[in-house]
Each structure stands twice: as C-alpha cells, then as structure tokens.
Amino acid sequence: xxxxxxxxxxxxxxxxxxxxxxxxxxxxxxxxxxxxxxxxxxxxxxxxxxxxxxxxxxxxxxxxxxxxxxxxxxxxxxxxxxxxxxxxxxxxxxxxxxxxxxxxxxxxxxxxxxxxxxxxxxxxxxxxxxxxxxxxxxxxxxxxxxxxxxxxxxxxxxxxxxxxxx
Length: 166
Hints:
Number of strands: 10
Low-confidence stretches: 1-13
Oligomer: single chain
C-alpha cells in the first residue's frame, strides 16, 4: 500500500498538502534500470510526483538461488522527493533532453531520513533477469515551514528488473 498521509499546517500563502496517494500508480523511469549506476525512478499521480534517486550499485547485489536484501540510507545514499506541480505532469518532465518549462514545481518536500529496501531474486518466469522489489521505510519528510512527517512506510514502491551477468 502506497498511501502517505501528510498533515501540514497552512500559513498565509502556504500550500496545504493533506495526502500523498500513489497506490494505483505504476513505477516509471526514463532508461531501464542498470546495475552499478544511479537510477532515477518516479511515480506520477496527475500533478504530483514521488521521486527516488537510487544510489549507484544498489541493484547490483543479486545471487542466483537466493533472495538478497540491500538497504540504502536516505538522504546520504539515495534521495526521496515529493513534488507538487502547477498542472498535470508526465514522464517527459523527467526524461526529455531539453527540460520542459511547464508545469512548474509549486512545492517540494525532500526526505531527510529513512531507508530504501531492495529485495532481489531471480525472476521465476525468466531466469536471465533479477527482480528488484523496492520499498521505503521510516521515511521522514520536513516541510518548508519545518514540520516533520516521520516513519512513513511505502511497502510497495515498485519492481524493476536487471539482466543477470554472464
């Protein structure tokens, strides 16, 4: 379940964020995730995005015949960001070579603590690829006015695959 409830107080002119809901949203990326490199992944829900910049090498720990769990700390190794845009956004915002000018970011909250947890197994239907199941635990966001939202758990951020090296 990928529902985060954030309660932000609202000062004059501040945007009020009541919920972050990405339950029915698929994980996206611009280039297929690769081992031994940073990977940018995101979920878009109309005018909101939950963005994960996964540290280099986090998808490099598969062992044939075993389930391997890898942890990456936030923010020192991987970054998690929540953005609200002025209008609906699509993957072109993240993937185009020339940055788009619209929609614009109207609010951004960066996680200041937590873990990215990756469970890696061999795909039982295709034994040439690893399946990496990504979840987030203990994510702590801090709003622009200093309010902390802590211990958010996203047990099903998404799955990606990488080729098993020869």
